[in-house]
Design goal:
CATH topology of the largest domain: Cyclophilin
CATH superfamily of the largest domain: Cyclophilin-like
CATH architecture of the largest domain: Beta Barrel
Largest sheet: 8 strands, antiparallel, barrel
Number of helices: 5
Strand content: 25-35%
Radius of gyration: 27 Å
Structural class: alpha+beta
Shape: elongated
């Protein structure tokens, strides 16, 4: 058994075949009415059980780098689902089990994404895409998933400019609606951490830990780190801060945690890592630590999202490291992070973890897999 979504044209054509004796004006009026009825039926009922998901590979993107989204369709039913882009012929095309451009851009007027930018601007028109006259049906097995990875800036040039963009995918004439994702396009940033012992500059590792970088920037811009204590000093190893409770047990106000972004970046002197529970690699929230020496046994066990970038920063780290502590590693005299400021990286500074930027191919298929 399958759930088949037929094109409006074929349905209307079959209805009109039995009406040859009617006058042309009446036939035209009935054709329009039938199209409305069939469209409403298809949009309201036939797509139940099919879910759309949108995933941003990076939520913070530097201007000029590709914005890559994963477009995913999930069949939650016990039957094979057959999808046809509305208004397209499928005769002569073999069914496919991969998500193709005609299905991605199958929204109203052959659109795909609705993008909301700064100052209330909205885009939905697709550039560099000419819809074909026909396309293959998409077959999704019972409880199966199909998807494709796509660099969307080729099709939506406005997102190449700096700004904040919220995107929703509405394929098949808007019958299915995905979750929304937000991507910030902005120059690379670094943080200036002001303490009562000096200033430390943190340059972020966008390439290896984009979600942790975005998390830190978000909290810093909110003022979350202002007036936080450096609540832990481990002589020769690290200092730790960012806890709203001041005792190492606090989290973000919303309770959000981050999945680990472990990498092969060595944890060395001046490395900035996100703290987490020892028992849960995906428990990072807001606390971070800065290391004072090489700690090889921690490599790939903590997410490295930045490093200190100059001698002044390392000198400030050393001053804090020399503060007297109690038996629990807490400073005997309060050491405060006055505030954290996020600024653009100077143009003459090479980004942490930088590597040649390569644009992905226009369409990279994700495998069709049964849902677990």
């Amino acid at each position: 058994m399958s759930l088949r979504f037929k094109s409006l044209k074929s349905v209307v054509k079959s209805r009109l075949a039995s009406l040859g004796s009617m006058r042309s004006g009446s036939v035209l009026l009935l054709a329009v009415c039938l199209a409305c009825v069939v469209s409403g039926s298809a949009l309201g009922q036939s797509y139940s059980g099919v879910q759309a998901q949108l995933v941003a590979r990076k939520t913070v993107v530097v201007p000029g780098d590709p914005i890559v989204l994963d477009f995913v369709l999930r069949n939650t039913t016990d039957d094979l689902v057959v999808l046809t882009p509305l208004g397209m012929q499928t005769e002569g095309f073999s069914p496919v089990s991969t998500l193709t451009l005609p299905h991605i851009f199958s929204g109203s007027g052959f659109t795909g994404l609705t993008i909301k930018g700064d100052f209330g601007r909205t885009w939905s028109d697709v550039f560099a895409y000419q819809p074909p006259a026909g396309a293959a049906e998409l077959h999704i097995p019972a409880h199966g998933i199909v998807g494709v990875s796509l660099a969307i800036d080729e099709f939506y040039p406005p997102v190449q400019r700096a700004g904040r963009y919220e995107m929703v995918w509405t394929p098949y004439g808007g019958a299915i609606r995905s979750n929304s994702v937000t991507v910030n396009v902005e120059p690379r940033k670094q943080a200036e951490v002001f303490t009562d012992r000096g200033t430390m500059k943190i340059q972020f590792d966008y390439d290896h830990a984009p979600k942790h970088v975005a998390n830190f920037i978000e909290l810093a811009r909110e003022g979350f780190y202002n007036q936080r204590q450096i609540h832990r000093i481990d002589p020769g190893y690290l200092i730790q801060t960012g806890c709203p409770k001041g005792d190492g047990t606090g989290m973000r106000r919303d309770g959000k945690t981050l999945d680990a972004e472990f990498s092969d970046t060595p944890i060395d002197r001046g490395t900035v890592c996100m703290a987490r529970l020892e028992s849960d690699p995906n428990s990072a929230s807001c606390q971070f630590f800065i290391t004072a020496s090489r700690i090889p046994e921690w490599d790939a066990r903590y997410t490295v999202f930045g490093r200190l970038v100059d001698k002044e920063s390392l000198a400030t780290l050393d001053k804090i490291m020399e503060m007297p502590i109690d038996e629990d590693g807490r400073p005997k005299h309060r050491v405060i992070v006055s505030f954290v400021r996020v600024v653009d990286v100077p143009p003459d500074i090479r980004p942490v973890g930088s590597r040649p930027s390569e644009s992905p191919p226009p369409s990279t298929q994700l495998p069709t897999v049964p849902a677990k």
